[in-house]
Amino acid sequence: MSGGSLDIKAEQVEKLKSLFPQAVKDGEIDFDALKLALGSETDTNGQSYGLSWAGKADCFRHIQQTTTATLKPQRKESVDFDNTENIFIEGDNLEVLKVLQKNYYGKVKMIYIDPPYNTGNDSFIYPDRFKEEKADYEERAGIKDAEGLLTKDGFFRKNSKDTGHFHSNWLCMMYPRLFLARNLLRDDGVIFVSIDDNEVHNLRMIMNEIFGEENLVACITNLCNPKGRSQDKYFATNHDYILAYTKNILPKGAFSIAKDENQIEAEYPKEDDGGKYRLLELRNTHREFGKHNRKNLFYPFHVNAEGVVSLESEVNTEKVLPLWDDGFEGCWTWDKKKAKEDLHLLVAQMVKEKWKIYRKSYANGVDRMLKTIFRDKYFYTERGQKEFNQLFNTKGKLFQSPKSPYLLSQLIQTSTKESDIILDFFSGSCTSAQAVMQLNAEDGGNRKCICIQLAEPIDPGDKDQKEAFDFCTKTLKVPANIAEIGKERIRRAGKKIKAENKGKLDFDGGKLDLGFKVFKLDESNFKQWRETIKSGEELKEQMEMFVDNKKKGSAQEDMLYEIILKNSRFDLNVPIEKKTFDGIEYYVLATENTESTEKIKTVSGNKKIHHEGHEGHEAEDFEIICLADKITRKLAEKILKEKPQKFTCLDTAFKNNDQLKTNTALQMEAEKIEFKVI
User: What domain count does the chain have?
Assistant: First the structure.
């Protein structure tokens, strides 16, 4: 089993090799050969359009470096661990995004992040020596200690404006994370990033580079503070931005949402046999279009005394042309063919003693497109603060300026469907988790959220953080950090939603997911082979140490989830069934809940398991993992009989019985069962 995360470079090189085999030589890209294959000349002047900064080249080295870290389940901190599909991960989001690459590659429908805005007062992880080795940086920054183990302190440093490489530090922090996040998006996925004027220009440049300029959906201006910031020097800033990009170009209307009944009632005041409708003027209301450049749209209608519209001149009808009040010869929005086909939708009304032609626009199936300026009072930061304060019964010093859950709900509603995955890897107080659960409660959806937040320490010496510190240490009795506040918010939001919906149809049946699994980023449960061996004695010592490659004290469930992350086709929400045979425990992983492994066996032929929101998968998509200290011949025969897609076990479990191990490997190969030994 590979102990590392997905090798991004190798994946990209293989994709390129499949398209241009002549451009990949000895596993490396020959860029001159690639340019020749594309019919392009080699650029000799070295000048090109783009954004560059100190440390950009090293961003790609950090992206391509794999990680051996894992995620360890924390049942005591979770709510309904075995049934929920919501996930909270505590740890550095760059490392976590790498860990998730294998299992969540191309599975996330929407990403929302609210990263540090780089105001000069922000603290975040960034390298300040752009040529140092990754291991040196990790040790210096506190991500790992001198022995290479993950640590929990020293992650954050303040990026003040008088620091050298002020913008470069922020870009070096953001670029790798956005690059890895794109991999997790589905082909029809979208990412929303909140930002303000400090870095919106740079963020747009790097997102153009990562996602493609053509995949910009919108730069939304969000009115977040209608009163404005009084401490500003010239203008009182009262807005921030949300940049929206897709992974690929999507069809028009991809982000439209159905209008609710109140909107329809207000916007479509008239009604006939066809339903609710409104009247829209048929004349083009833009003077740049008219008879002078749209001659095919300039023609007469004929209206009788009752206001009936016709294209033919009849007795007692009046000719109506698309003229403006000053006599300008305008044009219609429909050509004559369209008007003939939909003549029944046209209505004439007398306005200022002149006939005007209108068309009926029905509400049936009408969707609403979001505007690029958000002014809804429910989206204000003040509203987000109010929602948070009500949950925690505080006056506002516990967590400063959280985003409004209504803002997040709007973005989620317009870009996801009922069973999609939403990711937030700068989750802070976990507004996104509350928004997902609340929206599911409102529309009956089953969306899942993944929140990632580092245990950013809370400073008891800072007066603005004192309440948060006391809340964590005295009320919750947990370490004082932002991740703990985020987890507590999800718990409280779930309780609030449950209380508000008690007694409602389908709610008490338990369909709404108000729980969440907690995982923490940590070192691997298995020993890592040290490659910097300088002598035969060191090699011998290393080999003896790897007779049993489990680390001392590694819990079986921790190892199970590490194997799921690194050696399974399933994600962290796969149903897991613990079984016992011949006195040995093992785990069955499958795409649907099963009462027994025999039930799995009954669907293992060519049938398909269908689960909500996804196409059918072959029912052979189930795996068996055994982490026991021994493997017997009877158990091996049992596994062979059940015919899983994959079987994984520990090498030490064979107790040096090479014959049993070899026979098991050959038999599983014959049955087309993938056999993995750790």
Answer: 4
